[in-house]
Every structure is written in C-alpha cells, then in structure tokens.
Write a structure and sequence with these properties.
heterodimer; A: 323 residues; mainly alpha; MetI-like fold; B: 553 residues; alpha+beta; 4-stranded mixed beta sheet; disordered N terminus
Amino acid sequence: MTTWLVRRVAASIAIVFAVVTFTFLLLHLAPGQPFLPGDETPIDPRVVANLRHEFGLDQPVLVQYVKYLGALAHGNLGESFALHRPVADALADAIPNTLVLAGAALVLDLLLGLALGVYQAVHAHRLPDIGLGYATLFVGSLPTFWLALFLLLVFGEWLGWFPVGGVVDPVVHASLPWVGRVADRLWHLALPALTLGCVGAAGTARYQRAAMLDAMGHDYVRTARAKGLPEGRVVLVHTLRNALLPLITLLGLSLPFLLTGAVLVETVYAWPGMGKLAADAVFKRDYPVVLATAVTASTMVVLGSLVADVLYAVADPRIRVRA
Amino acid sequence: MPHSTARLALVALLSATLSSCSREGGCTGEYCGTVVFASVGEPETLLPAVVQSGAALAVSDQIFLKLADLGPSTNTVGDEDFTPLLAERWEWEGPLTLAFHIDPRARWQDGQRVTASDVAFSYDAYNDPRVNSPARAPLHWISAVTVRDSLTAIFRFHRRYPEMFYDAVYHMRVLPSHLLRNIPRDQWQTAAFGRAPVGNGPYRFVSWKAGESLELAADSTFYLGRPHIRRLIWRFTPNLQVAVTQLVAGEADALDVIVSPDDIKRAKAAPTLAIYPYRSASYGFLGFNFAAPGDTTHKHPIFADKDVRHALVMAVDRERLALSVFGEYGKVPPGPMSQLWAIWDPETRGLPYDTAAAARLLTKQGWIDSNGDGIRDKGGAPLAFRLMVPTTSGVRKQYARLLQDEFHNLGVDVQIDEVEFSVFLERAQAGKFDALIQTWNTDPTPSSGMTQTWTTAGIGQSNYLRYSDPAFDKLVEQASAAFDRTEARRTWRAAMELINQDAPAVFLFAPDYVAAVHRRVENVSIRPDAWWATIRNWRVPPDRLIDRDRVER
C-alpha cells in the first residue's frame, strides 16, 4: 500500500509539472499580448514596452520558463499583470470562494443524486422511475450556463427570492451579527450551488440507480429479505452500502467537473472565485494568474483523484490486495 | 416534506433572518444616501499615477483631486471654463509660467495640509519613467514644477499653445508626498497604497474586497462641502448583462453605460430607474488597411485605390445602420470624432450615400462581375476582403453583418473574422488585417487623439490603418496650435473634410450613452468625459430614503 501511495503521489506531481509546462507554452504560443489597453484608449507604446521589460517579457521564452519554474519552486507565484498585486493574494481571495461553491454543490450533488438514485432503483421500471429518468436526463443535458441564466432570471430577477449576484450584500453585510452574516452568505450561495449541484446530481442519480439495481440482484440482498428484515433496512443498509463504491469514483471525477462548471457559474452569478479569476486572466493575457490557477486547479484535481483512489482502496479490500 | 417546499421554507427563513438582523432605521436626514454602482470593470489600483482604466478613475477621482477640472462646457482651450478644486485660484506670470495657489483649507485625510510640495512631488512622479504613468505623455510640454511657498506651485512650459492649462491640470491628481516618498518608484504599480489609499477628495477609502465590491465613505470635513451621499459602493460584475440585471433587480442604484437598445428598454421599464442619456466619448469606424496585410512595405492590393475606398464609403447607409444597432441613441459622426469634441459639426462635408455612384466608380476602375457569381472581379481576382472584429463587442459584430450585406449588394465579398479582443489588438498593431471595425475612446480634446490615431506621426502607435496625408497632418497641427476658437474650428473642419475625401475609413457611429440611476437620487448630472465627476453633488432627500440608505455600517 505504501509503495502504491508513493508511486501515486509521484505521478500526481509529474502531472502538475506537465500541466504547468503545457500551459506556459500554450500561453506564449497563443496569439494576443498582455498590457494592451482594455478599453481602446490610445496608449503610448513606450508604456507597454516598459511594462513588458519590467515583467521580463522581452526575454526569450525559455529564459522566462526557467525563471518561472525557479520562482514556483520557491513558492513565488509572481505579480499579476492586470491586477497590480501578488498572484498569491489574488488566489487567496478567490480559492475560498470556489471551495465554498464547489463544496456546497458537491454536497447537493451527492445527497440529491443519492436520494434520487435509490428512489428510482426501489421503484425501478415503474412510473416514478421512468419520469425521474427523463427528468435527470433532461437536467443533466442542460448546459450549465443556460441553467444558471434560467435560475437567475426566474428566482433572481422575476421572483426576487434570491440575489442576482455576488457573495454577500455589500450594503448590509458588515453591519450584521454573525448569524446574519452566515445567512447572507448562504442566501447568495443558493442559486450558484443549486445550478452546479443540480446538473451534477442528475448524473449521480443515474450512476446510483444502476449501482443499486446491480446490488439488488445479489444473493446477500435476497438472503436479507428471506430473513424477514424490513424493506427499509434491506435497501438502506444491505443494498445501499454495497452500491456506494461507484459513488466514491464519481466523487473523484466530480472535482474537475465542478471546477470547469464553476467558471461559467461564477461568471453568470458574479461569484469571485478561481474560475472567474482564470477566465478574466486568459482574456487579459495575465500569464502569472493563468499559470497559478492552472497549477492550483490541477493540484486540486489530482488530489481529488488521489483521495478517491485511497478511499476506494479503503472501502474495497479486493483493491487493496491488488495494490 | 417535498424538496421544493423545503427550499421555499429555507428561503423564507434566510430572508427573515437577514431582515431581522440588519440594523435599519439608523441614519436619517440630509447626509444618509447610499449609492451602489454596478461596475463592469474592477480597478487595477487606486494610485492615480498608475491608473489606466475608467473603472479605476471613477473611484480614485472621488479620493484624489486635481488642481482644477473641466467645467460643464468641457472646453479645453484657455483656462476660463475650468473649475477650481485644490487650487483656489491661479494666474499666468508670462506666456510660459503658471502659478497655482493651493486652497489653504485643503487637507489630506490623515489631517496633514495639502501643500505646493505635494504638487511638485506629483508632477515629478507622473513624469518618472520608473512609475511608467500612462498620463506621462500629455505632460511633456511642461518643463518643470517648482515650489514658491508652501501654498504656491509654479508650472513652467517649453512652449506656448492653446491647451497649456488643460495639460497642467487634467491628467494629474495631486498625491500625498509624505505617504508616498518612501515607496520606491519602480514599485508603485503594485504598491499597497494603491489598495488602501489616503487622499484629499470628498470620499475616504473604506474597504475593497477583490472581485466583489469597493466602498468609500463621505468625508464629513471635506473643505469644499460635505458630500450628501454617505456611502458609495461599487459592485463588480463580469459583464454588462449581469450589471443591468443587478440594476433592474434593485441590487444596484446606478450604471454608467447601457448601450444596447434591449438593455435600455429593460432599464426604462423599471419604475425605480431614471434614464440619463449623454454624449459618449467613443466613435467607431470601418478602417481600410493602406498596407498589405502583414507586409507594411507594400500597398494594399484593393484599398490603395482611392476610388475603391470612395465606392465602399458611398455604399453604406450609415444612418440606417446606426438606427438599427443603437436605436434612437445612434449618431453618425461627420468624421473621425466623438461627440465630446467641439469640432463636431454636422455641416462638415463627407461622401454621400449613393449606391449607384459607388457601382459606377467600381465599374470605371475595371471591377465588374465577369462570371455572373454576384461578386465583381478584375484580372481574375474577386473584389473581396476580410473584415476583423473583436468577439467581445456585440455592437461591432452586428455592424459587421450589416456591412457584409451592404457590400454584397455592391458586388463586394466580405468575410468576417471574429477574433478575441487581445488578438484583435495584436493583429491591428501588426497590420495583419484587410479591414477592421475599430472604436476609440477619446479625451475631451482632439489635439492629441487625432495626432495619435490619424496622422503620419501615429503610424507605429495607434494609426493602425497607416493612413498618411501630409496635407491632413499640417491641418491638424495648425488646428491644434490655433488660439482663436473660430480659427481652430475652421481649420479642424477643413481637416475633417480632407480626411473624409481621402476615405481611409467609413465613420460609422458615435452614439449617445445612457446612464441609469435610481429615481430617489437627485442632482444627477453626467459630464460626458467623466461620468463620475459630479457624484459629490448627488443627493437623496430625507423623505426618499430607503432601507439601504439608513443602514449603519
């Protein structure tokens, strides 16, 4: 197990290194330049030239790459071209917002997906199962940004139940007691998390239904029923417990989905997370921020995958033996 | 409990908690207003010397004052239309020397007096290559700024010209030397001061949550009068649609620019919003590259021919296009100019809309449809070009399609290249395009902008089309140097008529912008060159306060 874990961690580091290298090369090969005026005001070319010199962009790409790797190895992510601040500070502001959003969406995804999957399996091939099957297929097929805009329009603009953007209400938040601040945050979190969570839950439900149906056909379930156990106990303890393994795999796979989905959701809901930070940085050719978000996102994804693998091994003794 | 019911219950619970928790009912009276701006851009820093974007200027100009500012007329020639700010008065001491007398009541927000040393320090910083200020270039005719006494700063110029006063006051904000002196100049771009500044203006910095919001509070001791709006809050949004949604949903009170007719309609339909149209500082055009794409040593195979350019200009019904894209707020410029400029003169002669004459011109030049495919050709080569527009501009994408139709009717094939904004600018600067739809945001004066974008001196800078006509260059130079306003207007008009005749571009639009502000806010006026310039005069009458205004921080 230890050897497997060491090999797995080494592979994860190699993946992150590869992501940094490819991102760096792609950024410099792609057309477009940093420091161009954003609002089409004529600008003195000397100002742009000075900025390029100041940030070392007038040096060969290989020199820039080696310098970047050296700085990265020392934990220095550099200065943002566009934000006029250290990249680490910008990330420190954005990452908690993304984690809160992705975390809330993941909880919603798993709870809702699990409940729906179990309910469908128990009522397999009957009207509720068929109806929910179509519904989850429909929601799962929706583009995330479309659902985000739809929920924003209906629950934000038309009904006014939820705020149409932001993390908190900037007018009242600072004046609220802590309970109010938490409520304010949850209120603003609701629509973005619901958007990401619903799309994820639609997929999770379909996986979970299949896993439940598979487990229900095994002898131990038949034995449990033959022993006269209540149906609830048969489903929730004997079947569900054995049908959770695919969900652990899904958990590891959900992180990349949540991070990519968050880019669009963060943009629609003006949620200042890592996705929005990265998207803005790409458009402004803010190389240090793009690289830092790529490093952070890839690290989170490989860590998520690693945790899922470890959990899988813990949950399934057969995998431990093979490892 | 069904899921939807549970959700509704949660919403109700949260709403109840929030409303019971907020300490409303606190502030009453004349100085309670809170205005929330929906802002599409976020400032990069609030240190004025290194500020580039309009979003940053809108905030930093509430914190830092200029010596004087443009008046409502936005006239930039001479000094009579300027309004005193930090300088209570000024006088000319000869043709090249200008003395500013600082208002003795002026204070930095940490209590220190604003002095002439701060003015000299500010000029020195703006002019320092290590600071790399975008406002450095307009100061190049100022030779020195010195201190005569603690409240008198002396500006000396290299030469005499009509906009000396404008250059001295418009671009530079006075900075606190006692707080910035010890920060190395090459670190100003990222200085912590830029994220928590101390200024001398009507508002103090309160907080800035990156990506979320920024708050300023009125300085009740401000020497030119306490601002009526107590709190200014900028909420950052990723795009204009989200900003309009926040405005319509009542989560923001003001938005400075609404462009599309659909969004304007949404804002007009909101009963809480008042609409303020104003002259925009931008103009847009379809520009023809005079050089071969990517090879500036050769002429463009199509656009080097003046008759072809004339035909293309005359084939465009610019009034119809402006109406179609901007609705009632569209305007067609009489040359390369924004509505901001005093040289705007609808009587300026240009090429008429005349598709028959356009067709005749092309036929005369040998461009005929020899194979009946609907596209003119000459020597086997079709009359075709690619039109570049940025993906970020809905207006320009819309224009590109409309122009494509108009040119197709003339027998000209246009392929549209929609490219990302950064790529658009890079290709424009490198001359890698046939034609493009470009917009420029202008200063209040044509002098510098016209030189940068349309004269020979601007080639290699912002004259992406590489248009060059020595006669036009000379007229621009003469117009910029004219002290007499009538003479200046006459020369500018001659320059505009000449460039219209040269037809380096189809000058398409110079729209009115529309701002929307909550109806409870009074005294709202928008100065076209800087919509934020009059915020300190806005007020919310005590009888119109809403919960947002009363919240105590």
